Amino acid sequence: MTAGGFCKLPSGTVVVALNLPSPAADGPAGGAPGGGVRVLIHARNRARALTRLRNLGLRAVYLRGNAAPPTPDEITAVLHHPDGLIWRTAPGGAVGQSAGRTELWRSIRSLPGRPTSPTEPRRPRVTDRG
């Protein structure tokens, strides 16, 4: 089960935060050592936020309750990102974090192990027809 939460903004949009198991294959049970990833989504409503994740191939993602809502710093980070969909290793994990130093937020496109969407354009093959 994933922990997560949401926050409704004055504009009527929501920011959804989810802690998901890491897709990296080098940790125990297919996850990164010490936890997973924290994903933030900015959308019109909670249903659309979860649909954005499902469209990326994360089919079994649900938001039940509001146990881990986004912090003000997380809300600021996702609002200033052009895609409105970012991630980093979950807080509390030892991966990439030292005392007093936090990991930077990354675009969802850089998430390792993310399946390629069939709607994404493929690069044309370069063939030598000389």
Helix/strand layout:
Elements: E1 3-8, E2 14-21, E3 36-43, H1 46-55, H2 72-79, E4 85-89, E5 106-107
Antiparallel strand pairs: 1-2, 2-3, 3-4, 4-5
Short descriptors:
130 residues; alpha+beta; 2 helices; 22% strand
How would you describe what is shown here?
The structure is a single chain. The protein is of the alpha+beta class. The chain has two helices and five strands. A hairpin with a 5-residue loop joins β1 and β2. The longest helix is centred in the middle third of the chain and has 10 residues, at 46-55. Mean pLDDT is 76; it is low at 25-32 and 94-98.
Query: Overall pLDDT, averaged?
Result: 76
Poorly predicted sequence stretches spanning 5 or more consecutive residues: 25-32, 94-98
H/E topology pattern: EEEHHEE
Number of strands: 5
Biggest sheet features = 5 strands, antiparallel
Shape annotation? globular
Structure annotation, total helices: 2
Provide the gyration radius in Å.
16 Å
State the secondary-structure class. Answer: alpha+beta
Helix content: 10-25%
Q: Strand order, main sheet: write it out.
A: 1-2-3-4-5
